[in-house]
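Need fresh eyes. Consider my entry:
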Amino acid sequence: MWEAERAFAALAQRDGQWTAFRATAAPDAMMFAPTRVRVHDLLADRKDPPRGSLMWWPARAVTACDASLAFSTGPWLRPGRGQGSFSTIWRRQPDGGWKWLYDSGGDVAVPAAAGDRVRATRPACRNLPPATRAAAPEGRTDLAALTRNAAPGLLVRGGGGGALDVRDAIAGGVSDDRSLRWTVNDLAGAGEGAHLFRLWTWNGAAYRLAVIEVIAGG
């Protein structure tokens, strides 16, 4: 999957940013701009910015045991304009290729380091659950409460130390073997388009939180 991410980034450099996003997005892929929107609707007529204005690299990946679903993250850079980190959910296609379902990014002072080698992990591939249930909205909570059920190496972005009002899930999915799942929840009172992204991995007995990202609204 991270080779698909690298190819995505290279396509943006060669053919243009939004051209690359359209070419690599699944039919139901979503972004926030600032509220949730279908990517192919958002980018249908959008012109590409100057080539080379956005660069990114995968640094970390989590792949389901059956390789049907995957997550990637790493740094992005706009030379002279800013830097940050991105998060992307990828789904394997019937032809064996990959298309992305969800993409987000935010400014950070020190983005994740990235080199030639991607740090790749996967869930425990034993005693896989027969089904998954949608989690109930957590209501008013904070990061400390949300991250109690964490996997080793939990990745946390955003959120600060304030309270969060977590509402209904508005997007999400699970790998075919149910070893990896993700959700996006609305965040009330945090600005237009504010949302919470989470990724869970199966550890052989239960799901553990691997990634949590609080994305501020506009």
Notes: The longest helix spans residues 2-15.
